[in-house]
Amino acid sequence: MSKRFIFGIIGAIVLLIGWWGFHHRGSPDQSLSTGTSGRRGAGPGGPVPVVAGKVEQKDMPIYLDGLGTVQAFNTVTVHTRVDGQLQQVLFSEGQDVKAGDLLAIVDPRPFQAALDQAIAKKSQDEAQLANANVVLERNTDLVKKKVIAQQDFDASKYSADSLKAGVQADQAAIENARTQLDYTQIKSPIDGRTGVRLVDVGNIVHATDQTGIVVITQLHPISVVFTLPEQNLSQVLNEGGANGGLKVQALDRGNTNTLDEGTLAVVDNEIDPTTGTVKLKATFPNDDLKLWPGKFVNARLVLTTRKDATVIPSSVVQRGPQGTYAYLIKPDKTVEMRSIKVAQTEGNLALVDEGLQPGEQVVVDGQYKLQPGVDVDLTTPQPSNQARPGQVRQPGQKMARSGKP
């Protein structure tokens, strides 16, 4: 079969297809595809079914989110203050202790002997002082009668004063020996929880040891140190954050569970120039011990609450090349693409700064089939798709920060 013959057949088929398309343009079947209503935008199956919702007005908290680290409110490494053999360990690892609780005992016998020796020395010097006082009293009468020389009187007086000072030194030595003996009983300096025991019974411990005996951390309350971008600092200060008192929530790494709620304690006095962030510290009661020293958490600072804010379900917000927008349902049941400005998204609610007014209807679900001017068929939204009154944020949602509070 020649190439000319094949090309001729292909040309005839193309002409036939063109003729068929020209004569069937505007046929009844095609008119059905444009919709029987004749209205612009109606699809092959009629109006597009969508879930509708209303723009509402309610109070909306404004949050600032930062990554934080849990820190113990106080941490103490317990050391011995005297040298000796560790005789007893009276705490269990992981035990909650109170300030003043006895933790361990260093062999007290050498220190008890030193105390006894100091007491005996004082008794000896007190006896000599008593004798010197008797001599001084007698010499006082004799010098008045000019029986003894003034030099002998002065010598007895200075001897008594010297012995008196010696007795005072003995008392100081007794107090020092008693303090050293007291140091053999190692007590907890704070309320907290003990960690892993660092020294076993029987070891010789020294006051200069670096490791200590145990580390105690205070868990009630506890602190979270977190950072915020420096551009948020003015917002925090404008809300009185420098004086503390702003509410802070601690969430887990997945932003799914609120671990505890506390208050802002301090805003650091400088901005880190390498990261452009400012450090903040919040205090949490930690009654349930969900916060543990060294744990990474997401800290959420409640900056303020915007009264009567314009809010919509978060699923209404769509994003395109020109920014965020929403499909507005007009009274004639057609949709309009409306540009909006979203301040933040909190769970299933979005806070709108511009573009929508309370009471207007918007498309909550079904946007992927829509174009401006398309007819829509409104359906009742499911309860799970609507925000409950007062519900402003669910953990696990990122927020879109605005430059305004």
Question: Would you mind describing this structure in some detail?
Answer:
This protein is of the alpha+beta class and 405 residues long. The protein folds into two domains: 56-71 and 220-385, Efflux pump adaptor protein, beta barrel domain (Elongation Factor Tu (Ef-tu), domain 3); 80-216, OB fold (Dihydrolipoamide Acetyltransferase, E2P) (Beta Barrel), CATH 2.40.50.100. The protein contains five helices and 22 strands. The protein has helices at 3-23, 28-33, 109-144, 150-182, 233-238; strands at 48-54, 56-72, 75-78, 84-89, 96-97, 102-106, 185-187, 192-194, 204-205, 214-217, 222-229, 247-251, 258-272, 277-284, 296-313, 318-320, 323-329, 335-339, 341-346, 349-354, 361-365, 376-379. Strands 1, 16, 17, 18, 21 and 22 form a six-stranded mixed β-sheet that branches. A hairpin with a 2-residue loop joins β19 (341-346) and β20. The two termini are 80 Å apart.
List keywords for this structure.
single chain, 405 residues, Elongation Factor Tu (Ef-tu), domain 3, OB fold (Dihydrolipoamide Acetyltransferase, E2P), 2 domains, six-stranded mixed β-sheet, six-stranded antiparallel beta barrel, 5 helices, 35% strand, disordered C terminus
Topology (SSEs and partners):
Elements (H helix, E strand, L loop, with lengths): L2 H21 L4 H6 L14 E7 L1 E17 L2 E4 L5 E6 L6 E2 L4 E5 L2 H36 L5 H33 L2 E3 L4 E3 L9 E2 L8 E4 L4 E8 L3 H6 L8 E5 L6 E15 L4 E8 L11 E18 L4 E3 L2 E7 L5 E5 L1 E6 L2 E6 L6 E5 L10 E4 L26
Parallel strand pairs: 1-22
Antiparallel strand pairs: 1-21, 2-11, 2-15, 3-10, 4-6, 4-9, 5-8, 6-7, 8-10, 11-14, 12-13, 12-15, 13-14, 15-20, 16-17, 17-18, 17-21, 19-20
Helix pairs in contact: 3-4
